[in-house]
Amino acid sequence: MVQSLNMAGIRSAWRLLRQPSLLAPDLAVADVRAIPFERLRRAGIRHIVFDKDNCLTAPYVDAIHPPFAEAWRQCRAAFPRGSILIVSNSAGTPDDAGGRAAVAVERALGVPVLRHAVKKPACAAEVLAALGARHPREVAVVGDRLATDVALANVGGMVAIWTRRIVSEKGDNRAAALLRRLEHAAYDGACEVRDVRALLGARLWWW
């Protein structure tokens, strides 16, 4: 499947330049194996959203990356059916003719793929509506890209979890691979992970 230019991402770039804090994750981990799924659930997370390529799978591969299989099992044990959602900038977008890629991913991973008209990071409203979340801080977004996955979470008021280590650049979208390298350089030079003491026992929101 050919992934088209992310116009929503380009439009969002100006906002990200003005508000670089939107690129700061709440939690940075090596990959999904380091995510404390059960601890997140106890801390108040009720829904979890995943990017697919280079977060759960190799680029444009439907099946879970084999080393992540146990972490994926733990995630699905911690979060009940209907509380996990895949949000990709390929499968489930207008690039996915007839939704065929989304259906293939759903069969391989066993969780739904969001059908969304606009790409990350501009689809926060669609994500929250699909999950039926009572509050954005009930939702954690997990992904390898700062300018799409982390920004999606921050724009929507959700919890941002950044997976720093990708699966592979083999078969990856060239533009995405280049932008990811720039994001890592910018992050290492300027950004800091937010205070996430709430993840160690306190609730993640207050009202």
Q: What would your notes on this structure say?
A:
A five-stranded parallel sheet has the order 1-5-4-2-3, covered by helices on one side. The termini are far apart. It has a single domain (7-191), classed as 3-Layer(aba) Sandwich (Rossmann fold), CATH 3.40.50.1000. With 207 residues, it is α/β, with parallel strands linked by helices. The radius of gyration is 16 Å and the shape is globular. It is built from seven helices and five strands, in the order H-E-H-E-H-E-H-H-E-H-E-H.
List the helices and strands and how they pair.
Elements: H1 7-18, E1 27-29, H2 37-43, E2 47-50, H3 69-78, E3 84-86, H4 100-109, H5 124-131, E4 139-143, H6 146-155, E5 159-163, H7 174-190
Parallel strand pairs: 1-5, 2-3, 2-4, 4-5
